[in-house]
């Protein structure tokens, strides 16, 4: 993990391998952002002109490297675009700062230390820069750089391995001795570390990450951070009557698990329950996915990874709220033991479900976990899942959908997501779509009308939420796994989508503002 320091040094005197400054897009050319004054002075006040000569405009995501002037200790200056100059001086949007810091951090992979002289006049700005830099510096290299036993000994070199992430981020311009700045930077570090751990889990190949091994990771984290962890294995699931988890997992040699993580605070007045879909690999089961749709299905546990990261973050931050995470873990595989279309499962709630499509499995494991979470009477439940391709068709690859049984709660989560820089959109739960899940054989079918399929899935989940409990469903099927080129602080692969929203929700709940 990249180190983070709140430096007391100035940009000109900092000993580092590179200095990062911000440049915005002005009406008449690039405009230097606050924080770059000392660097500009070293260029005799001509840094903006030099950047323009090199083709820089200040557009968002643009990056320009140039040799440092003689008055700087760092040998390289990296100018990163912030987009349009804000209407109010110094009023750069936090998400713009996150993305800019992330872009710079990605470009500095392999570098030991970089100073970030981006706008950091406020606590919020400093936190955004720190968060963006740490998330942007992420790289998943666990399976790269192995020893080639067939290569001649002389061919080995230090260059054979993958380029490592930026080693240290030195945050400049903040008040290093101010308690608020320190707290903001410490929060950014804890949050980024847990988001990056969620990304690691999502990126881990399914032959190494399966329900039992995921549960072991959760157990180890619980011991480290004082979180009580309970793991229900197959025998316990059978005894408890968890038909959804068992039905989805019965086709695999890797049995399902239900993991409960409970973080409690002695002064907490509210309890928040988080439920995550944890399909560690989704082949579709008997309703096998077509070619071209299986290759990234290790990411189908992104909801559980987000819930896991959020609970650990709450513990690390010492939030005055009880947060319980439920990881519904299973591997959906076709075999002679697999659930068939037409089978009927008796869920933990007692309801029966006719399985019309075994690739609509996420809602089955979530249903059991939602019922179990409801038994503890939390003040609110939020489930997170890579649930439907229909949501991707509706909202694209970067935005998650929000459904809820309470309009005010849905609105609150949408506002929180916007606040932390996660794109989301409120979606309805039309009552008329419920009829499509009527079954002549069971209480409900796991499929309904094809059109509005993401909403149908939300209506199915709603059936398993306890009466009187505020509930929201986040369908992160689009943003959970990024298959294109990295951008901003978003890497290729697992993204850690929804973690920041869940953590801010927990913080608001701790402050008495559940929404």
Any overview of this molecule?
With 515 residues, the protein is of the alpha/beta class. Helices cover 33% and strands 21% of the residues. The chain is built from 14 helices and 20 strands. The protein has an eight-stranded mixed β-sheet, sandwiched between helices. Strands 1, 2, 3, 4, 5, 6 and 7 form a seven-stranded mixed β-sheet that branches. Strand 6 (113-117), helix 4 and strand 7 (168-171) form a beta-alpha-beta unit.
Q: Which key features would you list for this structure?
A:
21% strand, alpha/beta, eight-stranded mixed sheet, seven-stranded mixed sheet, 14 helices, 33% helix
Q: How do the helices and strands line up, and which of them pair or pack?
A:
Blueprint lengths: L2 E4 L11 E9 L2 E4 L4 H6 L4 H7 L9 E5 L8 E9 L9 H14 L5 E5 L5 H14 L31 E4 L7 H25 L7 H15 L2 E5 L1 H7 L2 H7 L7 E7 L7 E12 L19 H16 L4 E11 L11 E3 L5 E3 L7 H14 L4 E6 L3 H7 L4 E5 L2 H14 L3 E3 L17 E2 L7 H10 L7 E6 L5 E2 L10 E2 L4 H12 L5
Parallel strand pairs: 1-7, 2-5, 2-6, 6-7, 10-11, 10-14, 13-17, 14-18, 15-16
Antiparallel strand pairs: 2-3, 4-5, 8-9, 9-11, 12-13, 15-18, 19-20
Helix pairs in contact: 3-4, 4-5, 5-9, 6-9, 8-10, 9-14, 10-13, 12-14
